[in-house]
Give the backbone structure.
Amino acid sequence: MVEEWVVKTEEDAARQAQAAGFPVVLKGLGTKLTHKTERGLVKLNLKNRTDVRKAARQIMRAAGQDLEGLLIQPMLSGRREFVAGLFNDEQFGPVVMFGLGGVFTEALNDVVFRITPVDEAQAGQMLDELRSTKLLGPFRGDQPADRPQLIQTLVGLSRLAVELPDATEVDINPLLIGADGRVTAVDALVIIGERLSPKTVRPPVDPRAIGNLFYPRSVAFVGASAKFGKWGHNLFSILVAGHYEGRIYLVNPKGTDIAGRPVYKTVTDIPDSVDLAVVTIPAARVRDLIPELKAKGIKNMLLISSGFSETGEKGRQLEEVLVREARAAGILILGPNTMGICNPHLSFYCTGTHALPKPGSIALVAQSGNLGTQLLAFAESEGIGIRAFSGSGNEAMITMEDYLDGFEIDALTRTVVLYIESVKNGRRFLQSARRVGRKKPVVVLKGGRTEAGHRAAASHTGALASNIRIFDAACRQAGIVLVEQPMELLDLSAAFSSLPLPRGNRVGIVTLGGGWGVVATDLCVEQGLEVPDLEPDMIARIDQILPPYWSRSNPIDLVAEMNPQVAMTATEELLKWDRCDAVIHLGILGRMIFIGPLIRSVLAADPTMNRALLDEIPLQLRQFETEYMRFIVKLMEKYGKPVLGVSLMADEQTRTVMEIEGSPYKSVSFLTPERTVKALAKMVSYQRWLQRENV
């Protein structure tokens, strides 16, 4: 902390400044004077008593009755200013902040956050994440900032959050870095008050109960309908079409047969036991159903119906009463206002959209049912396997935190994919996601990222702490893989569930043409990946399989060489290389789409061509692509390094993921270099987090 003295009068200020030694800084002091610079209450580089008296009079006039004293400090030299602080978030609790400081703190907005507790390792990561982190190193002849001092500052703020619970905001601004690298707190603001109370927290759901929801042996549709387009008709039809092998019961007070099946007037009329009630009746009638479900022993309700908290205060109250009565009856509600759930491993498809993806290892939960079912449809078309899907709806009882806990213990889940607009319990979400992330990747798309979300706060720390910034900080701490677009959710889930994790960020590239290699290299560098130069012995080995005019560099340009063995050899040489952690291949797959038009052109130009020979070419090319995919999967098994592809073009048989029987890995190819590179970069980032977690 900078040395300082408090005085009351203009003359006392001049006397104390003389004793301290010029130059000095004079500031107004008062509990209401939170932003001194903006009010003209900070006077710098005062070189004599006259300067001090003049500055004191100006401060007294500007502060008026809010002035409680004058603060004198020595004038410190330093060209680098930072800010550190503490803020309490309603969802996540105390949050530590570090950023570029001084008068431009909010204008430049270069800050990072961490949810407490913050240890020394996390504090160090905060320093490295700053966009202006180079200012912490050697700077124009100045020594590097004292890193241990900065780390201890951030750790100390984290401790303060625990030891001083009435400190709602703390602002240390600026933290001045002297020419010798020493860090000095020049000004500090502490707001004392009552911290925001956390929102009402829902009790956790037993993770095993989450699993049971996805394995019903029998389903009753309450609100079944014979009318096309009705929820009670669509859900039943899709379940039947998906070849569900469990028992299905239809319930409607009218009792008329539907689709040749008997219809029961109430659930209690069903002669057998029921595991899951799928409810589509109007919201106002759902409460009356609780006693019937209890009497029948039905423990799980998939509540499709809308008209609850999403509609406003009246709906919220109805939802609260329903949850209270359901909990007392021992009934677990998924929803309300949900698009449904599915478990392909059981051929259990109960969603509002006809999407029947194949079984896989990706667990998908979406707070937007429409987005979720669109992703399901895309997964089906691209051959991406799904472990389970849930449109979480209003999350009246089952929250994102519960889903994380449920899929954590599920042996079939290898990747957890979430679309989130809000979380119900920030602290629990952080803890659950971090625990799950140590076992399997958690990929998240956050909706509402452009929300302003700035709070009215007295400190810079509070003013800069928007909802999305805090959420992103929590995700980084938990090792969550954040994406920005819906397509990336499935890109990342396909990569994580199909490929080994890279050990580092060094990429080998093999390409059918030079231009794509250049583009891929640029994308790699922009995403923080390294494309290392080939070593002489590597070049010598590739010389043996490529013409003399090949690029002799990474990317390896195959110069349109069509010999299948060349692509295979080049790919393996890169994987064998100890300076390569992953391989990207471009244009080796997807050439089929050009062959048909080319053959037609050849026949038009030369009708005498051997038609049987031309017909054989597509078959040979398709066979090569299949062999190449099998080959790279075997290479991944052998070397433990991921291989990702970029298809030249797509046809009706093209899939993002191609399974190879008997292998834990799959062939993964995207349609653009940017999708491929971004997926690999996210995998590298996740692996680095695991390494920091010592997993």
